[in-house]
Design a protein that fits this description.
The structure holds five protein chains of five kinds. By secondary structure, chain A is mostly helical. Chain A is built from twelve helices and no strands. Chain E has seven helices and five strands. Classes of the chains: A mainly alpha, B alpha+beta, C alpha/beta, D alpha+beta, E mainly alpha.
Chain lengths: 355, 383, 158, 204, 180
């Protein structure tokens, strides 16, 4: 199936007749996208939070403050880079880069459109999930190396949190893999082509009998949404950096560009999970209306707008909900989400067996 | 000198299994400059030692150097969130010593402003309590409403936060013409927002999980620790000076004393202390509505202002129901125009002293919530 | 219960320990007691059902120029009556028995009185400074207190 | 089990309820007043800064008669007033027509100390000191917050001092002269007086 | 040689290119100021009110940070006591350069109402850390603090980055203020 599609990589190879250039283009494109996206997302976070709270948000940097994130980057570049004396310097300096790398590595398999995926590997879903878990190492490194009790507490909490939320998330993803019978994200996307009722949140393509499976897939979507919030440390699961308890959590001691790395990594992670949500449940780059506005270029539009919607949902939730306590957080994961995820898993298995 | 050594000695006794965490004085949720020395076993709090005095501004020393009217601005700065309520017991005490009867209109305005300030204080209390739990948006909704109340205060007194408005024998200035309409519109707005806050914050499942069954304070312990206000009422004891020892004209109004019932958990937990404040705002609205209805608009608020304030030799302990609890002033007069001594019984000072008792054995995150539910103002703790 | 009755009952029980009873119009009615019986009197006031002073509203350290004193404002939540107990001690040996074990709220109040006035509370479990820093010198609320010139290298006067 | 399901239901329901409220606010009108673009005095009538707001103090030196009442009422002691007596006939009357009794060569107010309580406004007999709505006067240097209200120049002060000194000298001289004259008169009148006294005694 | 000489020349504005770069850097610092979420006393309540919807401090690009490492400026909002003074100094030292200080209200400016008898009050925060802008008021209106913020932004915009001598002179002046 993949062979029939002329990917962006092939296109650039054809155009420049050099595989190296094509490789560089394909590698840097997500980075460019990531930087632009991060600026937009930071502005979006500021503005959406402001509008929810009946404020205006940044107003005095450009018209309606739209270049506020640029100012922030310019400022962060100038900030003094502090490494505390008591910190473990190699780990302290490495942690933000590791974190950012892990977040950026996830972009390698994200299919932006049917014709463009940086690396169309067959185990895409597995890879993206593994990369998502890698972030926790950077987090612990940062927290431990800072030699600050708040950082350490934040890091330890986040390890516990991310590891326990990976289980329901993994089971949900497994169920999707059963439904799609592939781990390749492009295949999963392609499976959901056609109208929006073919999306996996509505049971995937199938006959009218799939109405039985819709509640199951919908609750799978909810489970993954919640688990993804926990994995990106967003409210109501922002315990590792819970301001009211742990000052700034694992990045308390970071300043300047290193802090900006953490900041970028958080937003990059947000996009990765939002992208996964849209790929797994909402058809990825597929148009919701059959052939209407469908195609490789429109695919980019659909994919990004779907992902941005979930980024928006994350922001929206953040400014609505209070924060859970650390033990309740574990309780939600182990007592509520994991059993339900297992039920869904079995149901999906049975459904696939009898279908 | 001996004290320093003692403290150092305590530090040397740290159990190596446990972690000593220093919370504050600069910490986002210590509500000011409180410092808590917390001993943690894992994440479980085994000991809390509050260190206060980071805002000790020598109020009692100043009071001895000032004439009676000059003390009022300093009293404002004690509990700066509810300055109107603060001035009241002090002014009332001197009026009692001097035998001044204040006009009817003054009493009504005092009641209305005190209740408005109670609403403003509870708004801050609930807002910061929500902020401790990580809910930022309700904080801003409540602050938006508080701004309307401050506008009315500013129209009357000229100050936004610190008013110097209650003077001995009267008020600093008369209220403006549209006072009644302004206040009634505020009451309406407060009720509307409270509905939203109930849905958005107070009855949110996550929030309930955070505050129910946390920091349980039994009523007898609360009394022994001298707690008052919403802290003791949250434990189910209807102790309210407005009903128990009615001062001013509070006996004319029909309102209920709100107590905690253990709605979602145990009686006396953080949720109860918070819900008492929440429902007290409604009761304050009721008092304001009644007072607005009965209040005479004509009359001078400054006619009884004495030219020279020189109370006779004597002493008095005056108290009033502050939003945070019983605020008392022990005023000793020596017959001159300067007080001999003013001792203030800071409400938050007493309420805070119960914190080590009720926070042991909970998680560190709960300690923050318990501190938030006690609702302290450091200006009053340290004076 | 009226202050007069409380006084009479206390007088009947403790006799000489009650030095003075004052019910002048410009004062809240108070009794002045000796320091050695203070703890027993306070315990009596709290535990006797007809007194039932379960609520220590305020505890103030006082400086009466030639000697120091402590004033206890008591209130009963159930019976809604109040009473004042005073003790006076000399400036040379300001020792007052602690009532911390009777009303736990006295803990911080007594520390404050010690901090501000230098009154020693006998039997207090942790009598250290509370408002001022631990290495502060002098007792600020005494009438003869003079501001220090410097604290940790910072100038104190304006 | 019932509680378990109920808890999950409540969790989802209250979260959705909260999300509904915030999304409604997302599209509601915001209440922010953009300060530098819109001065609080120009706001819509609802939450405009009232005219009796207590901000920077203004002292009208053409009305101040130097009574020192404001300085005495100030709890903070941030007002310093020094006065000079007026030579009769030298000073124009105050703005409100009253007779000026004192020159005020020094009237300073330290806004770095002032607590804006408004106690200084009340005792002023001529309403010279008042609180304005002006609040935009932050400074890069603390000394800039030390305001000197007196309009008298150094020369004027010197002149007035001289005048006063002259006047006092003159007065002293006059007094001395008068005394002298009186003494002289006394001296002139004394002998007969004493005589008369003696006479009186004699008479007595 | 020439470029370096020009850099050190106090009368030379840093050239067109450097001047532009300087402008952009200054613009970044003035428009994106993160403040330390830190309150001391009464002024902190007005400070909170300023963060709220009516005044909205975020319009100026000011975002609260709870950790001093990430903050660009600190607002000393309230009375500084001796017990607290050492902590404030530590906080200031923990902040990353470039950092700024706004002294809000009379108490922070000069001890305010407590300057005369306050035995435990530091008479002005500029005795321990250098202050950039003094905002008078007790407490200042939120608008007054916003005006102070605009003043601070103006000051940042005028700052010299490449002009070393000018910067050194400024630092000297700051130290002079501290020692005074």
């Amino acid at each position: 199936m993949e062979q029939q599609i002329l990917t962006l990589y092939d296109w650039v190879v054809k155009l420049s007749s050099s595989e190296l250039i094509a490789l560089i283009v394909v590698i840097t494109l997500p980075l460019v996208f990531l930087i632009v996206y991060a600026l937009v997302a930071i502005l979006g976070e500021l503005k959406i939070s402001a509008f929810i709270q009946e404020r205006l948000g940044p107003m005095r940097t450009g018209p309606w403050g739209i270049i506020q994130p640029v100012a922030e980057v310019v400022k962060l570049l100038q900030k003094e880079d502090i490494t505390p004396d008591a910190a473990n310097k190699p780990l302290f300096n490495m942690a933000p880069f590791l974190m950012f790398t892990a977040a950026y590595a996830g972009f390698a398999v994200i299919p932006f459109s049917s014709h463009f995926v940086p690396a169309g590997i067959n185990l895409g879903l597995f890879y993206i999930f593994a990369m998502g878990s890698l972030a926790v190492i950077g987090l612990v490194m940062g927290g431990w190396a800072s030699n600050n009790k708040y950082s350490l507490l934040g890091a330890l909490r986040s390890v516990a949190q991310i590891i326990s939320y990976e289980i329901p998330a993994a089971i949900v993803i497994l169920s999707i893999v059963i439904l799609a019978s592939s781990m390749n994200l492009q295949v999963i996307n392609a499976n959901q082509g056609g109208w929006f009722w073919n999306w996996y949140v509505f049971g995937g393509p199938g006959t009218a009998w799939k109405i039985i499976i819709i509640p199951i897939t919908f609750s799978m979507f909810l489970l993954y949404l919640i688990a993804s919030l926990a994995e990106t440390n967003r409210t109501p699961f922002d315990i590792p950096e819970g301001e009211s308890e742990l000052v700034a959590g694992y990045h308390t001691e970071y300043s300047g560009m290193k802090f900006a790395m953490f900041f970028f990594a958080e937003y990059a992670n947000m996009f990765v999970v939002a992208a996964l949500l849209s790929i797994l449940f909402f058809g990825g780059w597929n148009s919701p209306f059959g052939d209407f506005m469908n195609g490789p270029i429109w695919g980019v539009f659909w994919f990004i707008s779907k992902s941005f919607f979930f980024v928006f949902v994350q922001i929206w939730l953040r400014w609505t909900l209070p924060r859970l306590r650390v033990d309740q957080l574990m309780g939600v994961s182990w007592k509520v989400m994991t059993p339900i995820a297992f039920i869904c898993f079995f149901a999906v298995g049975l459904w696939t067996m009898f279908n | 000198m001996s004290e320093t050594k003692k403290v150092e000695f305590e530090y040397s006794q740290i159990d190596s299994e446990r972690m000593r965490l220093n919370v504050g004085p600069q910490h986002p949720s210590t509500h000011g400059v409180l410092r808590l020395e917390v001993e943690l076993d894992g994440e479980i709090v085994t000991e809390v030692v509050p260190h206060i005095g980071y805002l000790h501004r020598c109020f009692e020393k100043h009071a001895e150097k000032m004439t009676y009217p000059q003390v009022i601005p300093y009293i404002d700065r004690m509990d700066y969130i509810s300055a109107m309520n603060n001035e009241w017991p002090y002014v009332m005490g001197i009026e009692k010593l001097m035998g001044i009867e204040v006009p009817e209109k003054v009493e009504y305005i005092r009641v209305i402003f005190a209740e408005l300030n109670r609403i403003a204080n509870h708004q801050i209390a609930i807002a910061t309590f929500g902020l401790d739990a990580g809910a930022f948006t309700p904080f801003l909704y409540l602050f938006r409403d508080r701004e309307f109340i401050l506008t009315v205060f500013e129209k009357a007194s000229g100050g936004r936060l610190l008013y110097n408005y209650y003077w001995v024998g009267g008020l600093a200035a008369d209220v403006h013409k549209e006072f009644k309409e302004d206040v009634l519109s505020i009451v309406k707005q407060v009720r509307e927002t409270n509905k939203e806050i109930a849905d958005l914050l107070i009855y949110n499942k996550i929030f309930i999980e955070r505050v129910a069954n946390v920091g349980i304070l039994p009523a007898d312990v609360a009394i022994n620790y001298g707690c008052s206000g919403p802290v003791v009422r949250g434990s189910g004891l209807p102790f309210d000076l407005r009903k128990d020892a009615p001062y001013s004209i509070y006996d004319r109004f029909d309102f209920d004393v709100v107590i905690g019932h253990g709605e979602v958990g145990t009686v006396g937990d953080c949720f109860d202390r918070n819900i008492v404040r929440f429902h007290e705002m409604e009761q304050s609205c009721r008092i304001i509505e009644q007072a607005i209805e009965q209040m005479p608009m004509d009359g001078d608020v400054r006619e009884k202002l004495p030219k020279k304030i020189r109370p006779p030799k004597g002493e008095i302990y005056t108290k009033a129901e502050n939003p945070k609890g019983e605020l008392g002033f022990y005023i000793v007069s020596n017959g001159t125009d300067k007080p001999e001594r003013i001792k203030s019984r800071g409400t938050s000072f007493v309420n805070l002293s119960v914190l080590p008792e009720i926070s042991k054995g909970y998680l560190f995150a709960d300690l923050i919530m318990i501190l938030g539910s006690v609702d302290i103002v450091l200006g009053e703790v340290d004076r | 219960m009226q202050a007069q009755e409380i006084y009479e009952k206390l007088k009947a029980e403790f006799g000489d320990a009650i030095i003075e009873f004052n019910a002048e119009p410009f004062f809240d009615p108070f009794v002045r007691v000796t320091t050695d019986k203070l703890f027993d009197i306070c315990l009596e006031l709290r535990d006797t059902p007809e007194f039932d002073f379960d609520y220590l509203a305020c505890l103030s350290g006082m400086d009466y120029k030639e000697n120091l004193g402590v004033v206890y404002h008591l209130y009963s939540i159930k019976l809604k009556h109040s009473f004042v107990v005073k003790v006076t001690v000399s400036k040379e040996n300001p020792v007052v028995p602690s009532v911390e074990r009777i009303w736990r709220t006295a803990d911080w109040h007594e520390r404050e009185a010690y901090d501000m006035m230098g009154i020693q509370f006998e039997g207090h479990h942790n009598l250290i400074r509370i408002l001022c820093p631990y290495d502060w010198e002098g007792f600020p609320l005494r009438k003869d207190y003079v501001q220090p010139d410097e604290y940790h290298g910072m100038k104190v006067p304006y | 089990m019932k509680k378990y399901i109920n808890d999950i239901w409540l969790g989802i329901y209250t979260v959705l309820l909260g999300m509904k409220i915030t999304i409604v606010h997302l599209f509601a009108k915001n209440v922010t007043v953009q300060y530098p673009n819109k001065h609080p005095l120009e706001k819509a009538s609802g939450d405009k800064m009232p005219m009796n707001a207590r901000n920077r103090i203004f002292v009208d030196m053409e009305l101040c008669n130097g009574c020192n009442g404001c300085a005495r009422a100030c709890p903070v002691n941030c007002i310093t007033v020094e006065t000079l007596k007026v030579v009769p006939g030298d000073a124009p009357p105050l703005k409100n027509g009253e007779r000026r009794g004192l020159w005020v060569p020094v009237y300073t107010l330290d806004f770095a100390k002032c607590c804006f309580c408004g106690l200084c406004i009340d005792p002023c007999p001529t309403e010279a000191i008042k609180m304005t709505t002006e609040f935009e006067y932050s400074a890069y240097d603390r000394k800039d917050l030390f305001y000197k209200f007196s309009t008298m120049t150094d020369e004027e002060i010197k002149q007035k001092k001289e005048l006063l000194a002259n006047f006092q000298a003159e007065k002293a001289k006059k007094e001395a002269e008068a005394k002298k004259a009186a003494d002289a008169a006394k001296a002139a009148a004394e002998p007969p007086k004493s005589e008369s006294g003696e006479l009186k005694i004699d008479n007595g | 040689m020439g470029l370096l000489n020009k850099l050190d020349d106090p009368y030379y504005g840093g050239g067109i290119i450097l001047g532009k770069v300087e402008d952009i850097l200054n613009w970044g610092r003035s428009k994106s100021d993160w403040y330390l979420q830190f309150g001391l006393a009464c002024c902190a309540i007005e400070f909170m009110a300023m963060n709220a919807s009516h005044f909205d401090f975020m319009r100026f690009g000011c975002i609260p940070r709870t950790s001093p490492r990430q903050a660009d400026f600190i607002i000393i909002s309230g009375t500084v006591t001796f017990k607290m003074a050492e902590r404030i100094k530590t906080l200031y030292e923990q902040m990353a350069e470039p950092k700024y200080v706004i002294s809000m209200g009379s108490c922070a400016n000069s001890g305010g109402p407590y300057w005369e008898h306050g035995y435990h009050v530091l008479k002005g925060v500029d005795r321990i850390i250098p202050v950039d802008v003094y905002v008078p008021g007790c407490p200042p209106r939120p608008e007054a603090l916003e005006e102070g913020m605009i003043r601070l932004q103006e000051k940042i915009n005028k700052q010299a980055i490449f002009n070393k001598r000018k910067r050194l002179a400024e630092e000297e002046q700051k130290e002079l203020i501290i020692s005074n």
